[in-house]
Amino acid sequence: MNSVLVVIVLLALTVVAYQLGLARSRKLERASVKSLVSGAADRLHSRPSYHGWLAVLRAAVPALFVYIAWSIFGDQIIGSLVLAQIPADQLPSDPLQQKVLLQKLNNLATGFGIVGDALPFEQEAAAYMAKVSAQGNAVAFAVMAASAALGLFWSWKNTGYQTRARNEVERAIQIGLIICSAVAIFTTVGIVLSMLGEAIEFFKVVNPADFFFGTVWNPAFATSGAGSTDGFGMLPLLAGTLLISAIAMAVAIPIGLMSAIFMAEYASAATRAWAKPVIEILAGIPTIVYGFFALVTVGPFLVDLGNVLGIDIRATSALTAGLVMGIMIIPFISSLSDDIITQVPRAMRDGSLALGATKSETTVKVVLPAALPGIVGAILLAVSRAIGETMIVVLAAGNSPVLTANPFEAVSTVTVSIVNQLTGDQDFSSAQSLVAFALGLTLFVMTLVLNVVALVVVRRYREQYE
């Protein structure tokens, strides 16, 4: 079924249903006005617009459910019917081969992606698939139309003075919001479970103590045999991640916070009007561009600076990646902190100034403490962004998984190692691939800890200033 056609039909159905519900309710409303003039007590419970949206819900939602059901189960039904028509001697017994055959038949039926000649039974099966697909789409479309018509008829017949259209529409909105929240929650749970399952398989091969406390990362030469799992120590990756993140935060927090304070407390309206958008442009630059900037400009500059100072600085190092990552994170801290500072009540500033405090004293001792929970949240959000960054580190950090605290040397991070372990021709069930899920689960736990810390700080200071 053509998705564009379905969208157009649903939109047209929405307009028609809304207008019918609106017309029906307005007719009742006019009758209600006449009855009030004559002394009767009939009054419309909800406004006409709510009756229009209730008609939309009763007509378009069932049709949408029919379309979703056909989109989910239609291919399975058609596939089972087609497989039932294929001669038994030509039908593969392996389910995976049956899926491959169905894909080939679908390509033949649609004329897309055809490679080579098709066997006679495949041509017949493809023609049957095209026929069944057309019939199934027609039936699904007819069911959608029938359900929509029944919904419109039901809405028209059951629209009365006491129809609680507003309550039903608001209940539907509430259910929709709950579904959206549930999708986000279940998506998070699904991500965690998918990583957890593969990580458990990895820890069946590699001792968790060797993984979390090992100082050597070299999985390319490690094997999955018992007693030969050296090379899966993640401490070098964790150290590199924290080192680059610390450098990035040392750059982003002072600059971002100071720029937010300037724009919120000291800048004029004209200056703020152009300064804030210019700073926020940094957030829209792709990270790969930052990586090229670090590799081509910042790295050679640091090498030349090191030669002048007599310090050995590599072009691809933790310092290079951290500086550029800090520049990238500045707008996150600046924009969020600016919005939070401007939300501090004006009465707090006026009270401080009335007591004789200067502008700077008011900013430091009144405004910033009041905005501290939000600022901490913005900083922790930026830290999470730094921990999860990949492209800048790939190009600028050197991809050298060594345990070092020297920012002038090349390092690697957890995210880069995940990319490395999942690329290339490797057995997905091997320890070399499964280690990526263990690393991903570790990153998730690190982010969770940051969120918990932010929640504790926000709750503590919110009680003080509310």
Short descriptors:
mainly alpha, MetI-like fold, flat
Protein described:
This protein has 466 residues and is mostly helical. It folds into 2 domains: 3-163, no CATH class; 220-465, MetI-like (MetI-like fold), CATH 1.10.3720. The protein is 76% helix and 0% strand. The chain contains 15 helices and no strands. The protein has helices at residues 3-37, 48-85, 95-110, 120-158, 165-203, 208-213, 235-266, 269-281, 287-309, 318-342, 346-354, 359-387, 391-396, 414-422, 431-465.
Please render the helix and strand layout as text:
Blueprint (H helix, E strand, L loop, with lengths): L2 H35 L10 H38 L9 H16 L9 H39 L6 H39 L4 H6 L21 H32 L2 H13 L5 H23 L8 H25 L3 H9 L4 H29 L3 H6 L17 H9 L8 H35 L1
CATH top level assignment of the largest domain? Mainly Alpha
What structural class results from the helix and strand content? mainly alpha
> What is the third-level CATH name, the topology of the largest domain?
MetI-like fold
What is the residue-mean pLDDT, rounded to a whole number? 82
